[in-house]
Specification:
The complex is a heterodimer of chains A (83) and B (372).
Chain A: H1 2-19, H2 53-64
Chain B: H1 2-25, E1 40-50, E2 53-66, E3 70-83, H2 86-91, E4 95-110, E5 113-124, E6 127-140, E7 145-159, E8 167-182, E9 187-200, E10 208-211, E11 214-217, E12 223-236, E13 241-252, E14 257-269, E15 273-284, E16 310-326, E17 330-349, E18 356-371
Antiparallel strand pairs in B: 1-2, 1-18, 2-3, 3-4, 4-5, 5-6, 6-7, 7-8, 8-9, 9-12, 10-11, 12-13, 13-14, 14-15, 15-16, 16-17, 17-18
The chains are: A mainly alpha (83), B mainly beta (372).
Chain lengths: 83, 372
């Protein structure tokens, strides 16, 4: 628990320091390094996690009813009997 | 309830940590605004066959934006199931039933944020599930980072055929958090975390367990909490092709631990064709109270093979053909998907001959998708 509190306090301090505009001497300010005009390839449908919601949800449904693991897929979950 | 409180506590701590980190990221101003999801229609015929189970039916999605601020999505999904699985043929009678699922969701965008509210209801003769969800995505750091978080709450009613006095409920909570980071003009990485909590009747009123060789109704704990974490890397390979690799770890309070790994490759062919392929591997350890044939009396006992030790390997692909495209106005695609999966169980036997059970399954999808 102490480690978690320390981590949370450090993160809060870092966030507050950056938000307040006071640059820390040891951490340089990081700027976005990929400009919007350089993101054409990333916007292509071939890079998407899911291009079509219904067929991907069907694949996910087939897996959830046969395997015990669930979650963190990037899709919203839903309930069904499937027992 | 203790499991639920633990999940909520973890969620609060994560939000507090996220808020602290966002304080740093938000200093980068952004003049961009996210777009609403595009207007879309999908019409799908799906078919599953494997292990004595067949499930097929149509599914539809229609999405339309209103005043460029809100986008409404309606979905319908039908599963016509005929079940003659290993459980059913060895302990009960094959049956057929139909599941209907209706969904309605609304997306709302404000500057760099997108809010999604969703409702879903699923009806089977012996199971009704109602689900509500709320998700937020927020672009930060000049659009290079997308933070996503969401919540799902579901409430189920469990009934049993030919036993009208049987009635029970199950409640589900899911809390998710994710981030996608642009690494280079060609590579993206995303991390997702989800905490899941279930409470209520989490068994099947039909399934039986085996204790000293005798069939007894399965007894399953009424609470379950799980955690899942996934890492995904996607890259453009430079020749109108791309690849992805991902890994997910899952564990829960029933002592199930699962690994999922997937690798995929996608490529355009000509102007109108796009092909995807993937290989997926999954393995899990069994639940504490799972037993193929228990040799001691315990509070909980189950022979649900979904809770056993097993692995599966799947190989799949999808082909999309652009039937017609008018840039800026609409496009229509015809798509076909197929996945073959092989299951190997390590501690679940076929009662007919005593051998370890295994089966293969196939998923076929044919669908039309259109943007307008």
């Amino acid at each position: 628990m102490t480690a978690r509190r320390t981590l949370a306090a450090a993160a809060a301090l870092l966030g507050a320091a950056l938000l307040g505009g006071c640059a820390m001497p040891t951490i340089p300010s990081i700027q976005p390094w990929v400009k919007p005009y350089e993101r054409e390839r990333l916007a292509d449908p071939i890079m998407k996690l899911s291009r079509d919601a219904v067929p991907d949800k069907h694949f996910e449904h087939v897996r959830v009813v046969r395997e015990a693991a669930r979650g963190a897929t990037g899709f919203q979950g839903g309930g069904c009997g499937c027992n | 309830m203790a499991a639920t409180r633990a999940a909520i506590g973890l969620w609060r701590r994560l939000l507090a940590l996220l808020g602290s980190l966002l304080g740093g990221l938000l200093v980068v101003p952004s003049a961009r605004a996210v777009d609403l999801p595009e207007n879309k229609g999908e019409a799908l015929i799906h078919s599953y066959s494997g292990g004595g189970v067949k499930a097929n039916g149509p599914a539809f999605l229609v999405r339309k934006s209103i005043l460029d601020k809100v986008s409404l999505t309606g979905t319908y999904y039908l599963d016509a199931v005929s079940n003659a699985s290993i459980d059913v043929v060895t302990t009960a009678s094959p049956y057929k039933e139909t599941r209907h699922e209706f969904g309605l969701s609304a997306d709302y965008v404000y500057r760099d944020a997108q809010l999604t509210f969703g409702l879903m209801t699923s009806h089977e003769p012996d199971y009704v599930a109602n689900t509500g969800s709320f998700d937020v995505t927020q672009e930060v750091f000049g659009g290079m980072t997308t933070i996503a978080f969401g919540f799902t709450r579901a409430s189920d009613t469990v009934k049993k055929h030919n036993e009208p006095e049987f009635h029970d409920t199950a409640d589900h909570w899911q809390y998710r958090l994710g981030a996608t980071q642009i690494l280079t003009p060609r590579w993206l990485v995303s991390a997702n975390f989800e905490a899941l909590s279930d409470e209520g009747y989490l068994a099947s009123p039909y399934r039986v367990a085996r204790v000293f060789g005798a069939a007894v109704p399965e007894r399953t704990p009424r609470t379950r909490s799980g955690r899942a974490a996934k890492l995904r890397l996607v890259g453009d390979l430079g020749n109108r092709d791309a690849m992805h690799v991902e890994y997910r770890y899952f564990s829960d309070t029933w002592d199930i631990k699962a690994h999922t790994a997937e690798i995929g490759y996608s490529r355009y062919f000509g102007e109108n064709w796009l092909a995807d392929s993937f290989f997926r591997y999954y393995s899990q350890t069994h639940a504490l109270f799972y037993s193929d044939n228990a040799t001691s009396e315990t509070t909980y006992v189950s022979r649900n093979r979904q809770l056993s030790t097993f692995n599966d390997m799947g190989l799949g692909g999808r082909v999309s053909y652009t039937v017609r495209r008018v840039p800026g106005r609409y496009d229509v695609k015809l798509n076909g998907s197929y996945e073959y999966t092989r299951f190997k169980f390590k501690d679940f036997t076929d009662l007919r001959d005593g051998s370890l059970y295994g089966y293969a399954s196939s998923v076929i999808q044919v669908y039309l998708s259109a943007t307008y």
